[in-house]
């Protein structure tokens, strides 16, 4: 069973690249972030035409998450974590969607970036991570096979970035962000890509600016966390890096985990 995550950076702008990736790799489940469309604008029929059923949680021009499943309809469990955005009266942002697919709990997330740091956006990032951890504990207590994946906007360790000094002041690499991520792992979740690449040097994001892709100036912020039931079934995990180099690509590459059974 192949489960993947892809920050698509605008589903309408990247639809040809997204469909291309789906048909070439054929994941059983594909979690999308930054779809950047309201619910009524989501192109569900495009995915149905190639055999995927979808649920989605959209937001105008920003954020937004979706779960696609090959040949089956995802059973929605929850949308949102019940935490408002950093501005008064803003309401909840479209950043979390949870479903069950083929007996596996899929928790798809787009964690806040947190810049500029310090400030209310960084405070919101940390509060959101606290709320995520609480939800992950609830899922854990259900004792179901579970995967928590998506764009975490956290560079876990120095080995996960091309230049520590270049990102030192960024919210993605602050001690508080890293500590919150470590607490998630400390609850018993397995970082699939890190487990199979303990020396680091694996990137999932390359900025559009300053020739970052051409110079391989990237970092790892897209993660796949597995419950013990799924960690025992892991046979592979990686990044579809080649898709980042295609025409009109997202600034992220897809990440994936392959499970037995």
TrEMBL record:
Molecular function terms from GO: double-stranded DNA 3'-5' DNA exonuclease activity
Keyword Cell membrane appears in the UniProt entry: no
SUPFAM superfamilies: DNase I-like (SSF56219)
Presence of keyword Transmembrane: no
Keywords of the record: Hydrolase, Magnesium, Metal-binding
Cofactor(s) it depends on: Mg(2+)
A Pfam family it matches: Exo_endo_phos
Enzyme type, top EC level: hydrolase
Coiled coil: none
The enzyme's E.C. designation: 3.1.11.2
Domain Endonuclease/exonuclease/phosphatase, first and last residues per copy: 4-252
Family, per entry: Belongs to the DNA repair enzymes AP/ExoA family.
Descriptive protein name: Exodeoxyribonuclease III
Native source species: Qipengyuania mesophila
Lineage: Bacteria, Pseudomonadati, Pseudomonadota, Alphaproteobacteria, Sphingomonadales
Gene assigned in the entry: xth
